[in-house]
Design brief:
The complex is a heterodimer.
Chain A lengths: L1 H29 L3 H4 L6 H10 L6 H13 L13 H36 L4 H15 L2 H15 L12 E3 L2 E3 L4 H34 L2 H8 L4 H31 L1 H6 L5 H10 L3 H29 L1 H8 L1
Antiparallel strand pairs in A: 1-2
Helix pairs in contact in A: 1-13, 5-6, 5-8, 5-10, 5-13, 6-8, 7-8, 8-10, 9-10, 10-13, 13-14
Chain B lengths: L1 H13 L15 E6 L14 H10 L4 E3 L5 E3 L2 E8 L2 E6 L13 H14 L12 E8 L2 E6 L6 H4 L20 H7 L9 E6 L4 E6 L12 E6 L3 H9 L5 E2 L4 H7 L5 E16 L8 E2 L14 H9 L3 H8 L4 E3 L22 H10 L7 E7 L6 H14 L3 E7 L1 H9 L5 E7 L5 H8 L20 H12 L3 H18 L2 E14 L3 E2 L14 E2 L2
Parallel strand pairs in B: 1-10, 1-11, 15-16, 15-17
Antiparallel strand pairs in B: 2-3, 4-5, 5-7, 6-7, 8-9, 9-10, 11-18, 12-17, 12-18, 13-15, 14-18, 19-20
The chains are: A mainly alpha, B alpha+beta.
């Protein structure tokens, strides 16, 4: 087990180092960030000065070396645009994304798995067919369009919910959260639904496919023969057996949504990290881009690792293999 | 607005949707503005970005004020005059109070000027004080500013010179401490119409009225400046009643708003003009013969080719069709009425036949091929204008491949001289010609600090001479004449071809506010008044 952890940790280090090099070289290839932010009446010497201040006059390898040595000491530098430490900037935006993503991914999973099991258990009922038809819709309609329609319907026409922003926040453990206030929840509702739709559809399909397959296996037949009630079979056997792919997808979706909820955050003006990274890319704010992507890599590695651990909890066969 | 949205939520709970349109009226003392961009810091000296200055103008005052038409007016300085070749005297307004109750004096001005080079970020504010050599305090309300040589545009440089309190900001004036001190509010003490309450980067800026403001009390007790970068979301927030006024309505939405009784739209002329720029180097990278091979000489160096390109542009169509009417044909690099704009320059004629004839005369009867580059995400309509230009050029025989790209890619490549034919907007934010002509039209010469944005290697000896003379002539009338002459020469050379002046649209809840649109597109709460 320890070997497994160390192996994963080394993998993470390699991925993060590679990520930082790619972003560094990529931004360098696009061009000089100073040319995007320099005011039009700047003279030649002012431009040179701005380039020097940001350290962009040094050769690329030297810029990278400075970055890497600082990063190893936990200092990712200061944002070119905001002049505040990058980690502080990302940290100030993370809670907003975290609460939005957790609410939408968790509710999509709970609801999606329930509906999916039903649709797989009773594949021919009318409700199941409706669920599956709707899941196709959830898959195929682009999320920015759904977002705009949600705003148009619930904010503009009906006026029930706000069109964007984070609403009132309350401080808990030194961090501001929206989900603890009524106003904040009203603000979360639409973007959370918008983010959840696609995941809901996917969870439904995964759970249904798994259910249909498992229901035909000997395990279920024997369980029935042993006289277990259908509810017990579903809860104790089926749910466990279909959960491996669901946990995998849940982990990946959680990660990708945390890192890239860009579209929803933009449409609903949600001040999360997705919007931050897009804004940073549009002005080539390299310290933010590099730090963000490195943290994203770390996030994915962590999530994958957690998923592996959960597998072992769910499936005794995996546990047995690993200890062997 | 918090109350309004909370009420909306309860309404949702009881499904009482009929009253939705009434939200917001109960909080008339608060003005909520939905704006596209926001400040990068609460430190006014950090960035020269337009949206940064627009936000700072709520809290801080500038030494010299720039009016709605961008011509200079008294601000914290009541008068100014050159007293010798390289000294300007500024008289300051007396009786002005900072938000903490302390008096505004010459010490604060000196402190602010000297602070700028230390704390400036990459969008550098040092341009405001680049000519200042030394600040000499004569008395509490008189300053002598010594410059490095004659600085004719010093008052124009000062339109974004924000004055911070020398006491409150004393401990927050190094690159490390500035952002923290100002973002927390500790140093955010100005003389402006509104006091700082709170700010989140890319989020809300909350302000409270400053009752002792020297221009008089603002109309709103509380102002919330919400950043909503997405155009559709901003409009949706207005329609949903979350915000009272928004800026930068897109031209498509503007057409739809004309039929909406709940929304007023306000149109203003913008300072931004779209200019086509034609590379003047002997070898240019993105012009090809009809077989796609590089050409031996750059056809854009031939005046007849440049005139042909000018005659190929149908500016009326550009305004009416491409911009949905939100613009005006432009014939020079600045809007009419600016210091140095030349009223005598004629509007170029749209004449495709003449364009073809000129191309044939220049030795290109079958035309040639160009790659046209422009931004697609910087100013309203930039990509669309570019597409329009491509079609117009192709009609006269210049086969045009249009590349409307992100400014993230465009500006670094443009600075690297990678383009031959390119278009982007230019706004004369100081309202005066040295800003624009000095940067674009003088040959690129670091020694005289001119021509830093001349990305086409345009050089006209007469223009260079006029612009250098203008930069050191303190007499305003003589200077104006020089810039007008230079403008006429530049536009006749057709290396810079101005196409359209943009217009900007604001939208507000019907019957709620009135204001005069500003050329620099700032949305300033103090100048927004309740309609009734």
């Amino acid at each position: 087990m320890l070997g497994f952890v160390i192996q994963r940790f080394l993998q993470a280090v390699v991925v993060m180092a590679a990520m930082s090099v790619i972003v560094f070289v990529g931004v360098y290839a696009i061009g000089n960030p100073v040319d995007i932010v320099i005011p039009p009446d700047a003279t030649q010497d002012i431009r040179e000065d701005a380039i020097r201040r940001l350290g962009l006059d040094r050769p690329l390898w030297e810029q990278y070396w400075i970055f890497a040595t600082n990063a190893l000491q936990g200092d990712f530098g200061r944002s070119f645009v905001y002049n505040i430490p990058v980690l502080e900037l990302i940290g100030s935006r993370l809670p907003a994304t975290l609460e939005l993503v957790l609410i939408s991914v968790v509710s999509a999973t709970v609801l999606g798995v329930t509906l999916g099991i039903y649709a797989g258990y009773r594949p021919d009922s009318r409700i199941s067919k409706t669920i599956m038809a709707l899941s196709v819709l959830g898959f195929s309609v682009p999320s920015f369009w759904v977002g705009l329609i949600l705003i148009l319907t619930f904010a503009v026409s009906l006026g029930w919910l706000p069109a964007g922003g984070r609403g009132e926040t309350v401080e808990l453990l030194g961090i501001r959260w929206s989900f603890l206030t009524l106003d904040g929840l009203a603000h979360i509702a639409l973007p959370a639904v918008n983010l959840a739709l696609f995941k809901l559809a996917m969870m439904i399909r995964l759970a249904r496919a798994g259910t249909r397959e498992i229901m035909l296996t000997d395990t279920i037949k024997f369980a029935r023969a042993a006289g277990l009630s259908e509810a017990t079979i579903l809860r104790r056997h089926l749910l466990k057996m279909i959960s491996i792919p669901i946990v995998t997808v849940f982990g990946l979706e959680l990660g990708s949504t945390l890192a890239f909820a860009v579209v929803t955050e933009t449409i609903f003006s949600w001040p999360g990290v997705g919007k931050l990274i897009i804004d940073s890319i549009s002005v080539l704010d390299r310290p933010v881009m590099v730090a963000y992507l490195i943290l994203t890599a770390a996030l994915f590695v962590t999530i994958n690792f957690t998923v592996d651990l959960v597998f072992a909890l769910i499936d005794p066969r995996i546990r047995a293999r690993r200890t062997a | 607005m918090k109350h309004a949205s909370k009420r909306n939520f309860f309404k949702a709970a009881v499904l009482c949707a009929g009253l939705a349109s009434a939200s917001g009226t109960a909080v008339a003392q608060t003005l909520t503005m939905g704006v596209r961009g926001g400040p990068e810091s609460m430190d006014p000296h950090y960035s020269a970005l337009g949206v940064h200055a627009a936000a700072a103008k709520h809290i801080f005052d500038t030494l010299v004020w720039s009016g709605t038409d961008l011509q200079i007016e008294p601000g914290l300085a009541t008068s100014w005059r050159p007293i010798d070749e390289d000294t300007w005297e500024f008289k300051l307004r007396e009786g002005v109070k900072f938000h903490d109750g302390s008096d505004f004096t010459a010490e604060d001005v000196k402190f602010s000027i000297e602070r700028i080079p230390v704390v400036s970020g990459p969008t550098t504010t040092t341009i405001y004080v680049r000519r200042v050599a030394e600040v000499e305090i004569i008395d509490d309300y008189t300053l002598h500013i010594h410059t490095d040589g004659p600085a004719s545009t010093l008052p124009n440089d000062f339109i974004r010179l924000f004055i911070v309190s020398s006491e409150a900001a004393a401990d927050y004036s190094t690159p490390e401490t500035a952002a923290g001190g100002f973002n927390s509010g500790a140093a955010t003490i100005g003389t402006g119409p509104y006091k700082f309450v709170s700010w989140e980067p890319k989020g809300d800026l909350v302000l409270e009225r400053f009752d002792d403001y020297w221009r008089g009390m603002g109309a709103w007790e509380r102002v919330i400046r919400k950043e909503i970068p997405n155009d559709s979301s901003r409009l949706a927030a207005l329609k949903a009643g979350q915000v009272d006024v928004i800026n930068y309505v897109s031209s498509i939405d503007y057409l739809a708003l004309a039929n909406d009784p709940n929304v007023d739209s306000i149109i203003g002329d913008s300072v931004y003009i779209m200019n086509l720029q034609l590379d003047q180097r002997e070898q240019t990278p993105k012009v090809y013969d009809n077989d796609g091979n590089p050409m031996a000489e750059n056809p854009l160096r031939d005046l007849r080719v440049r005139q042909a390109i000018d005659h190929a542009i149908d500016r009326e169509t550009m305004v009416e069709i491409v911009l949905e009417g939100l613009g005006k044909p432009a014939n020079q690099l600045m809007p009419p009425g600016f210091f140095g704009s030349n009223a005598g320059i004629p509007m170029p004629e749209y004449n495709p036949d003449k364009a073809r004839a000129l191309l044939a005369e220049a030795g290109y009867p079958d035309g040639f091929k160009i790659d046209l580059y422009c931004t697609s995400d910087r100013l309203p309509g930039d990509g669309a204008i570019c597409q329009g230009l491509g079609q117009m050029f192709t009609q006269v025989g210049i086969d045009t491949n249009v590349n409307a790209i992100s400014r993230t890619v465009y500006f670094p490549a443009q600075a690297n001289l990678e383009y031959s034919v390119f278009m982007n907007g230019w706004g004369t934010l100081t309202g005066e010609a040295s800003y624009t002509l000095g940067g674009l039209a003088h040959s690129n010469n670091p020694e005289v600090k001119l021509g830093a944005f001349n990305r086409i290697q345009y050089k006209n000896e007469d223009v260079d001479r006029l612009l250098q003379a203008g930069a050191t002539t303190l007499d305003a009338d003589a200077r104006r004449a020089m810039y007008e002459e230079a403008m006429a020469l530049i536009m006749a050379d057709k290396a810079y071809i101005s196409i359209v002046q943009l217009q900007t649209v604001w939208a507000a809840k019907a019957g709620m506010v009135t204001f005069e649109p500003r050329y620099d597109e700032d949305t300033l709460a103090f100048f927004i008044r309740p309609a009734n």
